[in-house]
Prior knowledge:
This protein is α/β, with parallel strands linked by helices and 255 residues long. It has a single domain (2-186, 215-247), classed as Survival protein SurE-like phosphatase/nucleotidase (Stationary-phase Survival Protein Sure Homolog, Chain: A, 3-Layer(aba) Sandwich), CATH 3.40.1210. It has helices at residues 14-23, 71-82, 108-118, 138-153, 220-225, 241-247, and strands at 2-6, 28-34, 53-58, 61-67, 89-96, 123-128, 162-167, 178-180, 192-196, 202-206, 229-233. β9 and β10 form a beta hairpin. α1 crosses α4 and α2 (71-82) runs parallel beside α3. The N and C termini lie far apart (58 Å).
Amino acid sequence: MRILLTNDDGIHAPGLRALRQELLAIGEVVVVAPAGEQSAVGHSVTLLTPLIVQEISERDEFIGWAVEGRPADCVKLALLELLPEAPDLIVSGMNAGSNAGINVLYSGTVAAAIEGAFYQQTSIAVSLEYTKPARMDYPGGARLARHVIERILAHDLPRGGLININIPSQEKWPVRGVRILPQNISPYLEKFDRRVDPRGRTYFWTGNGLDCPAPLPDTDVTALAEGFITVTPLQFDLTNSAMLERMKKWDLAVS
């Protein structure tokens, strides 16, 4: 099996390195990942600057390519320019921090998997929850992720299938199991730290962490909090089909 591995934390991130070691038990792994951290860039792509690409090797072993661009850029370049043939699987991660609930809309990790699904490639995003200042066990999280990925691949996942996996933080181990659940869509509580610089100008720091005070039951957010690995099938078709059918009856003619 040929596996393309990417992420949004950068090619030297410990989560990616740990996941790569585990995925080598499944097949051949080639990395195409951002040269530096690209957390929370969503599905942005680079248009106005060149995408500089550098081969990366360790101990004379070719690992892949570092790209001066976004996670979605990495997948595009991998599929259209860098890989000699299409991979059998695209894995994005392992992200430092969960990507559950509405976070999937901001996540560069999930965006890279979505980009793979655009090209009809089976794509899986993997994230490891953490609660500061707890230590993150990347090798342990990667082992759990690999087991779940192997079980997913054992089923008839359609071509272009898109899956989001979240692993609970280490303090919740041993995990209670794996649950297949929908994405939570209730809002998060967001905060900004308001400050004034020495020249009297107001600026803001985005608050540290996002809390979801009232998550919907039986969703990825609630199950992750309870110590379960969560698996959520996603799609990039944002059309509201129910609203579409209602709107077809509207008279929106322009005279």
